[in-house]
Design a protein that fits this description.
single chain; alpha+beta; Fructose-1,6-Bisphosphatase, Chain A, domain 1; D-Maltodextrin-Binding Protein, domain 2; seven-stranded mixed beta sheet; four-stranded mixed beta sheet; 13 strands; 30% helix; 22% strand
Length: 282
């Protein structure tokens, strides 16, 4: 994989970076598929990290492959991956690669196809290019700053709607129920999506109107989907202690990488919905 380069306008640099990210994600997906068994337990060995979070041999194999490819493509960038020990030196980098080798590891382990390889390039705290690749579903979501968002190369946009009644809301059942009760509407059921990155991309593609996430997700779960949402006419906001002044988007490459509850929705709806996010503090 060739070095992506750091010259030119921001939009041009982001577009070049996206090509490298998509290529890497597809290679990572091919590696993961070697261990994936549709409808059956993975062939990969499984271990558990602190907090009873699973990690498989596939997660680690994809992480190693992506590290080799992306460190060569972005030699000046810092690095933040779920499966690599965090190096505080990244905080001094203008650019950083943020990735989850397999987002939705529990789905992957059980043979559920809703898992993804998620990679973003962040520059000065903002994700400027991102890819969320779902190999078992044959879907690749991608976006770069100023160039729009796509699904398998075709443009996507977040849903347009005038009322919440009947809106499809994806997220943990308890959080969706509390959110709907706060806003006094009855949502339509949405499919279970164990990959958070995929859930957020479903908002970007207009497959669901609103996406919610519980507290304790991490930057590697969301950074790639964040730029895809932005380029599709939607946005991602954090509630609780993470709410930024003026309701601004999430700033990445800080010491704090663990997030409070999250809301994804079309831009015009975000100010009206954020206060109903469970755990939100006004």
């Amino acid at each position: 994989m060739e070095e992506a380069g750091h010259a030119g306008s921001l939009e041009d640099r982001a577009a070049r970076a996206l090509l490298a990210l998509v290529e890497a994600a597809r290679l990572g997906g091919e590696t993961a598929l070697e261990y994936f068994r549709p409808g059956e337990r993975t062939s990969a060995d499984i271990a558990y990290k602190a907090g009873d979070s699973p990690v498989t041999a596939a997660d680690l194999a994809v992480d190693r492959m992506l590290a080799q490819a992306l460190r060569a493509a972005f030699p000046q960038a810092g690095w933040l991956s779920e499966e690599t020990e965090d190096d505080p030196a990244r905080l001094g980098c203008e650019q950083i690669v943020v990735l989850d080798p397999i987002d939705g590891t529990r789905a992957f382990m059980s043979g559920d196809p809703c898992w993804t390889v998620a990679i973003a390039l962040v520059e000065r705290g903002e994700p400027i290019a991102g890819v969320v690749h779902a190999p078992a579903l044959g879907e690749t979501y991608a976006a770069s700053k100023g160039r729009g968002a796509t699904l398998n190369g075709e443009p996507i946009r977040a849903a347009r709607f005038s009322t919440l009644e009947g809106a499809r809301v994806a997220g943990p059942k308890g959080i969706v129920a509390a959110f709907a009760e706060q806003l006094k509407f009855k949502p339509e059921p949405a499919p279970r999506m164990r990959s958070l990155a995929y859930r957020l991309c479903s908002v970007a593609a207009g497959r669901v109107e609103i996406g919610l996430a519980a507290a304790h997700s991490h930057d590697w779960d969301i950074a790639a989907a964040d730029v895809i949402l932005r380029e599709a006419g939607a946005g991602l906001r954090e509630g609780g202690a993470g709410l930024r002044e003026g309701g601004a988007g999430i700033c990445y490459n800080t010491a704090r990488i663990r997030r409070d509850g999250l809301l994804a929705a079309p831009l015009e709806w975000l100010p009206r919905l954020l206060g109903a996010l469970p755990g939100h503090k006004a």
